[in-house]
Amino acid sequence: MYSPIKLSAKYFQYWLFAANAKGHGVHSPFVFELIERVLNDDRDFYYFPLIEAARESYLQDHTVLNITDFGAGSRLNASNTRSISSIAKSKLKSKKYSQLLFRMVNYFGSSTILELGTSLGISTSYLAAANSNASIITVEESTEIAAIAKKHFQYLGLKNIVQVTGNLDETLPVVLSQNPHLDFVLIDGNYRMEPKLRYFEWLKPQLHEYSVLVFDDIHRSKEMEMAWKLIQADEMVTLTIDLFFIGLVFFRKENKEKQHFSVRY
Ligand SMILES: C[S@@+](CC[C@H](N)C(=O)[O-])C[C@H]1O[C@@H](n2cnc3c(N)ncnc32)[C@H](O)[C@@H]1O
Fold it and tell me: Which residues, in sequence order, are CB contacts of 9 under 8 Å at separation 6+?
């Protein structure tokens, strides 16, 4: 994992060279529209304050959990006990990026959504709240954490979430065999290159031209940056957008030539 100083330097570099938030210099109508209608959309939706209130209550909750496993590469896996508040502080996607996921699902009308890495269920809730007709399958290795997320989904009244508990190495092939068409996938469960690329390979046959793939933490470490480069180079991928903390991947065939964008967000 990069040091905070190195990561800040990388962020500064990204900010200097990325296309600005108005989309100037982006020669793709698809990306331009995505910037205008999704990245720059600052509307508040009904569920936003409800989900953020849940995040806030996690942050105040010092209950200690016995964690089966925090996942490879995590700085937090040295010990197997962790408080809910510390998980909420260090593991969850921020409000800004979680709400972007909501708007993307909304914009693309994604109906079968897969999330690798539920944690306490904040990003899952945003994905589920974006389209009540969608079905969200979310996988979490830790049964203790998954149980907390389950209570949170019930509290929010989100009924379109299927939770799968277990290591992705074993659970993902089963999930994929039951869900042959995936519209939207958030890969947020592992910080090592090999499993990340392996999961990507497993997912590929279930993806279609209009599927959207979101990779978390693409600049977190040298390994993650390498994984991101290999994904960008994959023959099925036609367009990627680097938002620094997450990367968006598209497979749209209207894109005759591969295009990679960095956009300030
Ligand atoms: C970064 S957190 C997910 C955060 C969540 N998506 C959010 O933003 O609200 C990653 C989660 O993936 C889980 N995880 C890591 N490796 C895994 C694996 N191999 N199989 C299943 N879950 C895994 C971890 O236990 C952790 O809870």
Answer: none
Distance 69 CA to ligand 1 centre (A): 9
- The binding-site residues of ligand 1, defined as CB within 6 angstroms of any ligand atom, are 70-71, 91-93, 117, 119, 122-123, 139-142, 145, 167-168, 188-190
Q: What count of other Cβ atoms lies within 10 Å of the Cβ of residue 4?
A: 8
- 259 three-class SS: strand
Please give the model's pTM, rounded to 2 decimal places: 0.94
Instruction: Return the domain boundaries, the chain.
Output: 4-47+91-262
The number of CA neighbours under 13 Å toward the Cβ of 7 is 12
Question: What does pLDDT average to over the chain?
Answer: 92
> Measured from the CA of 70, which atom of ligand 1 is nearest?
25
**For the CA of 74, the nearest atom of ligand 1:** 15
CB-based contacts of 200, cutoff 8 Å, min separation 6: 187, 213, 231, 234
Three-class DSSP category at 195: helix
Q: Which two tokens stand for residue 232?
A: 């960008």
User: Reduced to 3 states, what is the DSSP secondary structure of residue 82?
Assistant: strand
Question: Which tens digit of pLDDT belongs to each residue from 237-252?
Answer: 999 999 999 999 999 9
CATH 3.30.230.10 matches 4-47+91-262: no
Mean pLDDT of the 138-165 span? 96
Q: Which atom of ligand 1 is nearest to the CA of 166?
A: 21
pLDDT of residue 71: 52
Residue to substitute in 188, 197, 199, 245 for testing ligand 1 pocket (most ligand atoms within 8 angstroms of CB): 188
**Per-residue pLDDT reduced to its tens digit, 200-224:** 999 999 999 999 999 999 999 999 9
